[in-house]
Amino acid sequence: MRTYLVTGGAGFIGSNYIHYMFRKYDNEIRIINVDKLTYAGNLENLKDIEGRENYTFVKADITDKEAIRKVFAENDIDRVVHFAAESHVDRSIKEPEVFVNTNVMGTCVMLNCAKEAWELPDGSFKEGKKFLHVSTDEVYGSLPDDGTSYFYETTPYCPHSPYSASKASSDFLVKAYIDTYHFPANITNCSNNYGPYQFPEKLIPLIINNALNGKALPVYGDGMNIRDWLYVDDHAKGIDMVQENGKLGETYNIGGHNERRNIQIIKTILETLQELLPDSDPRKANVSEDLITYVADRKGHDKRYAIAPDKIRKEVGWEPETTFEVGIKKTIKWYLEHQEWMERCISGDYQKYYEDMYKNR
Ligand code: NAD
Ligand code: TYD
Questions:
Q1: For strand 226-231 and strand 259-261, is the pairing parallel, antiparallel, or unpaired?
Q2: Is residue 52 within 8 Å of 22, Cβ to Cβ?
Q3: Ligand 1 atom closest to 230 (CA)
């Protein structure tokens, strides 16, 4: 049975990836989820798989060398899928150091521990071992608002925020391990994800929650910035396919050609909420464009991101499955049906879940 070490599996994309992998492989794989449970880590996201024999949760910080070494020593890890990171641009502008520590130092520790566990005396690596570093298109910087330029794997790195600079640094470390040691790794650079379990500091869940509660919908700058949105399951599928069909040492961009201006996203959410909420729901009266509030722009706000996914399509055979129209409706429905999840996130109650869940272990 193949054993996966997933870092950051209690976060948004990591938890969706774990769900995806168990749906796809069921009992054919084993997953060890290593997560520090920062404010963004929520074990409630994985409640339904908690009892599986082939799933283990380890609370650990990826910068803690001894803790990570122990996971490798106690388990014969075949695959690493490295999600753990500080992920929010606005937080990185306020507190760059935690981003450098987790994203750069943490990635270095992960690489080193995997190398130590997988390297043979002649400097080659044990058969079948693979490390996938999950990264972002934000490392490429910002595109002009021309609708014709794209990020390719060959686009020079030009990060602007402390978040993207720290992710770029971690990508370079992975590239250095590939070039120096022939370390068996891949990097994926994906566009903005949306879907269930996203922490409500990010645009889409924040707008859904604020609209339902009749709170202002903060639009940074003029709302004309463009992001390229991908449904989170399509990202999970891309990661799995790169590990299965990709060529070791290569980088793959993941994106589904779905560019939207922020203001369009906000208006789509409002329209969809109006459509989905029954007239009897008192929250429906809150949902209005009057809530849209233009606020000061984000410092260094990147104008446009857009991925060219040609390489992953051609070489890996990946195609996105969920259109934005379907995905956004599914996502909004999920948040409407998981109002308590959202409330516990906002109140901070979700952080008690670990203590309750693991107190007798
Ligand atoms: P997230 O913030 O929702 O989750 C991050 C997870 O990592 C949390 O569970 C957190 O507890 C854990 N973590 C943080 N620091 C840790 C540490 N020091 N040790 C162990 N665990 C730690 O992030 P996300 O949106 O799920 O992003 C996951 C990865 O995907 C990140 O590497 C991010 O750069 C990348 N990515 C995100 C997007 C996006 O749109 N969200 C797009 C492309 C790439
Ligand atoms: P975000 O979800 O933080 O993702 P990223 O910065 O990684 O792309 O933001 C998406 C876009 O939405 C970005 O252009 C900033 C903008 N935004 C707002 O206008 N208002 C908000 O309250 C937030 C959180 C983001």
A1: antiparallel
A2: yes
A3: 40
Rounded CA separation 8/1 (Å): 22
Q: Identify the residues whose C-beta falls under 6 Å from ligand 1.
A: 7-8, 10-14, 35-38, 40-41, 61-63, 83-87, 102, 106, 134-136, 167, 190, 192-193, 199
For a mutational test of ligand 1's pocket, the pick from 38, 88, 199, i.e. the residue with the most ligand atoms closer than 8 A to its C-beta, is 38
Average the pLDDT over each of 23-32, 233-242, 339-348 and give the range with the smallest value.
Answer: 339-348
Q: Where are the alpha helices (DSSP H) in the chain?
A: 12-25, 65-74, 89-94, 96-99, 106-118, 162-181, 203-212, 232-245, 262-276, 310-311, 324-337, 339-347, 353-358
Q: What is the pLDDT of residues 100-138, one digit of tens each?
A: 999 999 999 999 999 999 999 999 999 999 999 999 999
Quote the CA–CA distance of 281 and 42 in Å, as a whole number.
28
Which residue in 163, 177, 197, 354 is the catalytic one?
163
Report which DSSP code applies to 101: I
The C-alpha atoms of residue 213 and residue 281 are separated, in whole angstroms, by 12
Percent of the chain's residues with pLDDT above 90: 96
Distance 14 CA to ligand 1 centre (A): 7
Task: Decide: 174 and 107 in contact? Cβ < 8 Å.
Answer: yes
Burial of 102 (0-12, 13-18, 19+ CB in 10 A): buried
CA distance 217 to 288: 10
| Shortest-distance atom of ligand 1 to CA 63 | 18
Number of Cβ within a 10 Å radius of residue 284: 15
